[in-house]
Amino acid sequence: MKDYRATAPGKVILFGEHAVVYHQPAIAVPVTTVQAKVDLQATGENSGLRIIAPDLGRDYRLAEAEADDALALIIRLTLARFQQVESLQATLIVTSTIPLGRGLGSGAAISTAVVRALAQFYGQQITPAAISDLVYEVEKLYHGTPSGIDNTVIAYEQPVYFIRQQPIERLPVGRAFILVVGDTGQVSPTHKAVGHVRRQWQADPQRFESLFAEAGRIAATARTIIEQGGPGATLGALMNDNQAVLAAMGVSSPELDRLIEAARQAGAWGAKLSGAGWGGNMIALVEPETAPAVSDALLKAGATGCIITEVAPS
Ligand code: MEV
Question: Would you state the pLDDT for residue 163?
Fold first, then answer.
């Protein structure tokens, strides 16, 4: 039987998380050193779709899935889009090297890989925009009011300058740069952190709108530097500025602060949390020669994992 295989990358937000929910610009890039992978094998049996997710210790049938099961939802949405009414006789195996729930887009990547595998299976062409729309439906189930940045950067697999509810803008990268991504080992509860920011914004709209606007200005400045391949030190300083804004929003944590400080001490140009915060991952912008020292410093400061990744010119 033929085997259909699809992958999707992780992602990091370089600038503008949280403020992006309030229509400020943000910048995100795919991280291809980690991937979600889906294998889809047709079976001769007449027993429907079996879903196996070894990393999660799960093995079940689509027909038995709970109403809020993310894998079942993306599969059903995709089958509906392809107008497949016949039940699918196959086994779908999901694996991922993207740490779960750490702000690296694991959920959106798994959903994207599922859509791509099903598209191959049915011989359908599907655009990144259509994949992104399908994945957004699942993101809503888990993250409440997501801006849509995660599904967009992962479905397009390109750096994006993203403004909520506006047409996607690809972000050309003038010169390659290196990021070290450090994992606090703690789950980043996106839903809760986004809710916390919302409540604070409601309590003090003036202060929070000025924090959002500041994050937006930083993202807009960073865009120009990235496009022009400008100096790393300037981009790093903008990361530090963005981290100060995120800390003022109350979404950093002692663990994130410790890793960010360790990266700066080890010679990074700049460092900040990436994603919703309160755990998850931080990113540091480094010179190629400094990357190993920064990675070592992060591990010594308690990071449970480190990824060194290059954002290639585009
Ligand atoms: C989560 O990866 C990024 C947030 O800005 C939420 C969102 O954009 O939906 C915190």
Answer: 98
Predicted confidence (pLDDT) per residue in 276-307, tens digit: 999 999 999 999 999 999 999 999 999 999 99
Q: Look at the pTM and tell me if it is higher than 0.90.
A: yes
Q: Point out the domain boundary residue: 169, 186, 221.
A: 169
Pairing of strands 58-61, 270-274: unpaired
Task: Give the CATH number, domain containing residue 278.
Answer: 3.30.70.890
Overall number of domains in the chain: 2
Task: Verify whether ligand 1 is closer than 6 Å to residue 275 (CB atom).
Answer: yes
Neighbours of 64 (CB within 10 A): 10
Residue 244 shares a structural domain with residue 288: yes
Cβ of 154 closer than 6 Å to ligand 1, yes or no, is: no
Which structural domain range is residue 111 located in?
3-169
Check if 68 is active-site.
no
Give the orientation angle of helix 128-143 with respect to helix 149-156, to 10 degrees.
Answer: 150
- Expressed in angstroms and rounded, the spacing between residue 102 Cα and the centre of ligand 1 is 12
Q: What is the pLDDT of residue 87?
A: 80
Q: What is the rounded CA–CA span in Å between residue 133 and residue 78? A: 11
Q: 97 and 37: one domain?
A: yes
Q: Which of 124, 142, 169 is the last residue of a domain?
A: 169
Q: By the 8 A CB rule, do 15 and 215 touch?
A: yes
Q: Tell me, yes or no, whether 163 and 187 share the same domain.
A: no
Q: Which parts of the chain have pLDDT scores under 70?
A: 1
* Distance in angstroms (rounded) separating the CA atoms of residues 101 and 276: 10
DSSP state of 267: T
Give the number of the atom of ligand 1 that is nearest the alpha carbon of residue 145: 9
188 CB near ligand 1 (under 6 Å) = no
Do both 104 and 211 map to the same domain? no
Q: Which of 3, 55, 69, 150 is catalytic?
A: 150
What is the model's pLDDT at position 100?
92
> Residue-wise over 269-286: b if at least 16 C-beta within 10 A, else e?
bbbbbbbbbbbbbbbbbb
